[in-house]
Specification:
D-amino Acid Aminotransferase, Chain A, domain 1, about 240 residues, globular
Length: about 240
Amino acid sequence: MLNSARQARDLYLRTEEAGSPLLLQRHLPPGSGQDWFFHGYVDRAGDVRAGAAGLKQRSWPRAAGLTAVGRWRSNPAVRALSERLVRELGYRGVFDLDFRYCGTTGLYHLLDFNPRPGAQFRLFSDTAGLDVLRALHMDLTGRPLLEGAPREGRRFVVENYAPLAALRPSARGCELAWHSSDDPAPGRVMRALWGRHVTRRLRQRYRTAATVQVRGHRVQQQVASCVSHDEKVSSC
């Protein structure tokens, strides 16, 4: 983290040690409602199809990692930025973008450009079942894309990172990362592996747990209150 122009200059003078040009990136503090993603497919004509924006409501690790819980939510500013970016690049194909909103400037900053499907792409499946991969296949095979209505409000949950959220009902529907009724094998494997992981961690904690004697009182380690219930469960 650089806090002054002098620190940036000192780092620049060490460019040869790194063997690559210096790249500075603005620090954007994390906060609630600031992390957004946009998935889409750019067809042969350069139009964004099957695209939509989503709000990252929970991540793992917190404020810096992958989407643990996200929701399909309209955001005209994010859509406009995404369409402008792929248009100016002349990009074609499936893409996944991550943005962070800066409350100070009121601007969205691009964090990541993935020229591939994102992990949450099935969140943006409309009423006709169209998502970015189906749009890609139909466009490349010369078929018209299915016409469906958006299902804004749908939720995406990664079960092993937000297990309690996965159990909560969602009025607009929920797309689970692992479980699917028409393909249950990945979900079964995830649950088995996660169960082993939790059991192993609990055994390690049991073996290493120790109470500390402080002036005749027993003091036990406590999990910080700022950690959510989902984080406590998923980090067992």
